[in-house]
Amino acid sequence: MIPIFDDISRTRLTKWVFGWLFLVVLYQWWADLMISQLEAPVLLRLDMDLTYWMVHATGIGELFQSSYGASLTFDLLLTVLCLITALFPKRIIFPIITGIIYLIYCVLLNSYQCWHYHNLITLILLIVPFCFRSLKTFSMLFAGLRYAVAYIYASAAIWKLFRGSVFNEGQMQWLIEHNYVDRLAVDGYQLNFLESAMFQLSNYPTLSSIALIFGVAMEASFLVAFFTRKFDRYLIIIGVVFHLFTAILVDVSFLQLWILFVVFIPPNRIMSSPKTWFQLA
């Protein structure tokens, strides 16, 4: 049975999602990752992604490359739209426009960075349900999104098992060393206490392998979401711990994606205090 949202719970979700998206965009400004902040001329790589080809076929990428004013206006528009959507959650037109602008931003950024920036692109899925006025349609799409999020994490575990990387001795050692090599290459850079502790872990093959298996097990735990909602509250905790684990151990942060875990909060708990989210029904 698909849980049905009401106007109140949907409104609160809209504020959460687009408020978070606004903070994500502000971080992109701080990190100099907005389109107007990129170096010129930019590199371009589209590969065989048809969505990327369609966006660039409009000529919008060339416009932003040739005009700083146009790219700056685009960046400011995206920032303001995220805020407006959070402040006026009942206006359906705002999520639609914001979603289109955000999609274009992700495509352009990934094209110019020559790789898919995983921290942002998945949030497009989260925007889609808010583009429909019907509460029934919204509820169905949000329920489908729950399975999509579970698939993202579970499939990552299955892929590691299928490739055998989780059983590859030295895999975690290589990951740890590879993610710290850039810092160590900087003349005079000194690892802090936490960085030093994590880097030293690479000297212990058994502990490194256990850490990798532990991480894959956390990803695989999302398989349970396909069979029951009973453990959804625990999947939120597992997801957050997993990302903290990867951020500390291999310096890979996916903080922007934490908002995805709202799909595991039942609609009847959305309007309640966060203290009740993990209580038994």
Can you tell me about this structure?
By secondary structure, the protein is mainly alpha-helical. The protein folds into two domains: 1-133, no CATH class; 134-281, no CATH class. The chain has helices at residues 7-30, 50-57, 60-66, 68-87, 93-113, 118-121, 123-127, 135-163, 171-184, 193-200, 205-220, 232-249, 267-270. The longest helix is centred in the middle third of the chain and has 29 residues, at 135-163. The protein starts with 6 loop residues before the first helix and ends in an 11-residue tail after the last helix.
Map the helices and strands.
Elements: H1 7-30, H2 50-57, H3 60-66, H4 68-87, H5 93-113, H6 118-121, H7 123-127, H8 135-163, H9 171-184, H10 193-200, H11 205-220, H12 232-249, H13 267-270
Helix pairs in contact: 1-4, 2-5, 3-4, 4-5, 8-11
In terms of quaternary structure, the protein is single chain
Overall pLDDT, averaged? 84
Residue share in β-strands? under 5%
Alpha carbon gyration radius: 21 Å
Classify the secondary structure makeup into a structural class: mainly alpha
| First-to-last CA distance | 16 Å
Biggest beta-sheet profile: none
Number of domains: 2
Helix content: 55-70%
Low-confidence parts, pLDDT < 50 over ≥5 residues?
none
N-to-C SSE string, H for helix and E for strand: HHHHHHHHHHHHH
Spatial shape: globular
The DSSP helix count reads 13
Please tally the β strands and state the result: 0
